[in-house]
Amino acid sequence: MSTTKNNLYGILAEVRNPKELIDVAKLVDKSGYKNYDTFSPFPVHGMDKAMNLNKSKLGWIVLGHGIVGLTGAFAMIYYMMVYDYPLNISGKTLMNIPAWIPVMFELTILLSAFGAVFGMFFLNGLPKFNHPLFNSEQFKKVTDDGFFICIEAEDPQFDAEKVEKLLKNAGAQNIETIHDES
Predict the structure, then answer these.
(1) Average pLDDT value for residue range 140-159
(2) pLDDT for residue 154 is more than 90
(3) What residues contact 150, with CB distance under 8 A and at least 6 apart?
(4) Phi, psi of 86, deg, nearest 5
């Protein structure tokens, strides 16, 4: 993470409710800012659209892991039952796919779940043991009843005075400058 002079992380502002948070996010997006994020104690329906975010790549990651699980299970069972240790059970063919379905299903689900969890960690940049916003006393309300937006100093058009003015005009309150102390 690169920051500008004085280790400035960004400008944090609080709004009163989810509707105002969506309105401020739309305004910030229309103003051309790209490096900003919103924070709330619960998911706010429509926030992705308000922030003009792209669709998540997590679904593709889960699908890829599921396909690897399915083909891996098929290849493993095929190798074991046909090449490594073929068993002729009651004259049935060596490739008895209906009997393999439970194992293929389970491995598909297992690897899809791993893909979902570790893909989420990767896409969210986790683990983060500390974040500059955690130094703000006001930000502690985000887990209970606070709704916040933070425009980061990494944004190409970031100017602290302009950002504060934009957020004040949007009706935000408790506007605070956040410094990265790490």
Answers:
(1) 95
(2) yes
(3) 10, 11, 12, 13, 36, 37, 38, 39, 133, 178
(4) -70, 130
- In order of their start, the domains of the chain are 5-55+133-179 (3.30.70), 58-123 (no CATH)
Contact status, residue 60 vs residue 86, Cβ threshold 8 Å: no
Q: Which two tokens stand for residue 76?
A: 């493993």
Q: What whole-number distance in Å separates Cα of residue 74 and Cα of residue 70? A: 6
SS3 content of the chain, % helix, strand, coil (to 5): 50, 15, 35
The answer to whether 86 and 112 are in contact (CB under 8 A) is no
The predicted model scores a pTM of 0.78
Tens of pLDDT along 57-116?
999 999 999 999 999 999 999 999 989 999 888 888 888 889 899 999 999 999 999 999
